[in-house]
């Protein structure tokens, strides 16, 4: 009996270790990055943090190579490789800790995700879709201090754990159906206003087709449904109605739009 029990225990340990290995291999682990919870009412500020990061170099590049529709001039970014590499190195040389404010952490990881997505496209350019790149979201290629994360690790391992669903409208996956790449770098000093602009802009754009009786909404709401459901917003309609210019009736039919993974490139 003891022998059988020992075998069962060893099997459970093996399964647990295998699961942890798969999680890491799938690139969804935070690799120990801090994941502070954002308060229900996030405020923009810089005085509550051990660091205040200057993202102005990224801001300059965004305004130069992203148009107002959120489409990207990847060839232009390629020509500005030295400046892009310098900003990426600046972020990667930092070591986020719990001494950073939640505002600084949100701005840092959003910008980190977006700049390394641009970098990934440039490394595989020309490409028709980020989905054509093997392991685009699961391979760890983003250095942070002595660790290396994937895009999926930043999104699901860090940002999604920070109690701020508006991040889904700030990070850009280089695709037509993604929220547009902002022309402004995210900063702790403006993070709440920037996230509010991002969610308002996305929900009231052609990424959704909303009437009072019918809502054909982005598949982002399908992919990450649980992130939007809270006591305050017990349904997707309740979440969307916080920001939508057209209010959706509680009993309205809701469907999801097909996701367009074509590259978000300027023509």
- Which runs of at least 5 residues are low in confidence (pLDDT < 50)? 1-26
Average pLDDT level: 91
Largest sheet: 3 strands, mixed
Number of strands: 5
What is the H/E string? HHHHHEEHHEEHHHE
Q: Level of helix content? A: 40-55%
The count of helical stretches stands at: 10
The Cα radius of gyration reads 20 Å
Query: What structural class is derived from the secondary structure elements?
Result: mainly alpha
Quick one: overall form?
A: globular
- Our measurement of the CA-to-CA distance between the termini, rounded to an integer number of angstroms, reads 70 Å
> Reading side by side through the largest sheet, how are the strands ordered?
3-4-5
In percent, how much strand structure appears in the residues? 5-15%
How are the elements arranged and paired?
Blueprint: H1 2-25, H2 56-65, H3 74-79, H4 81-92, H5 102-123, E1 142-144, E2 147-149, H6 151-158, H7 191-203, E3 209-210, E4 214-217, H8 220-223, H9 225-228, H10 236-241, E5 253-256
Parallel strand pairs: 4-5
Antiparallel strand pairs: 1-2, 3-4
What does this structure look like?
With 267 residues, the chain is mainly alpha-helical. It has a domain at 27-207. It contains ten helices and five strands; from the N terminus they run αααααββααββαααβ. The strands form two sheets. The chain has a three-stranded mixed beta sheet with strand order 3-4-5. The protein has a two-stranded antiparallel sheet with strand order 1-2. Strand 1 (142-144) and strand 2 (147-149) form a beta hairpin. Helix 4 packs across helix 5 and helix 5 runs antiparallel to helix 6 (151-158). The longest helix has 24 residues, at 2-25.
């Amino acid at each position: 009996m003891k022998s059988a029990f020992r075998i069962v225990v060893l099997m459970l340990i093996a399964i647990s270790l295998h699961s942890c290995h798969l999680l890491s291999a799938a690139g969804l682990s935070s690799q120990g990055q801090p994941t502070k919870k954002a308060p229900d009412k996030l405020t923009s500020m810089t005085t509550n943090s051990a660091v205040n990061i200057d993202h102005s170099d990224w801001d300059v590049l965004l305004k130069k190579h992203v148009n107002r529709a959120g489409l990207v001039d990847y060839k232009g970014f390629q020509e500005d490789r030295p400046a892009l590499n310098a900003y990426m190195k600046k972020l990667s040389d930092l070591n986020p800790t719990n001494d950073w404010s939640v505002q600084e952490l949100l701005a840092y990881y959003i910008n980190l995700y977006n700049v390394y997505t641009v970098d990934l496209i440039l490394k595989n350019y020309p490409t028709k879709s980020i989905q054509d790149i093997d392991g685009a979201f699961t391979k760890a290629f983003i250095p942070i201090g002595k660790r290396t994360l994937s895009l999926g690790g930043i999104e699901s391992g860090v940002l999604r754990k920070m109690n701020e669903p508006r991040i889904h409208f700030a990070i850009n996956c280089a695709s037509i159906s993604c929220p547009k790449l902002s022309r402004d770098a995210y900063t702790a000093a403006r993070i709440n206003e920037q996230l509010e602009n991002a969610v308002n802009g996305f929900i009231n754009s052609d990424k959704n087709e909303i009437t009072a009786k019918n809502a054909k909404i982005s598949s982002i709401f399908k992919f990450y449904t649980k992130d939007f459901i809270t006591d305050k917003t017990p349904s997707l309609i309740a979440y969307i109605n916080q920001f939508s210019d057209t209010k959706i009736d509680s009993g309205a039919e809701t469907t999801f739009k097909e996701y367009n993974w074509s590259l978000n490139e300027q023509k």
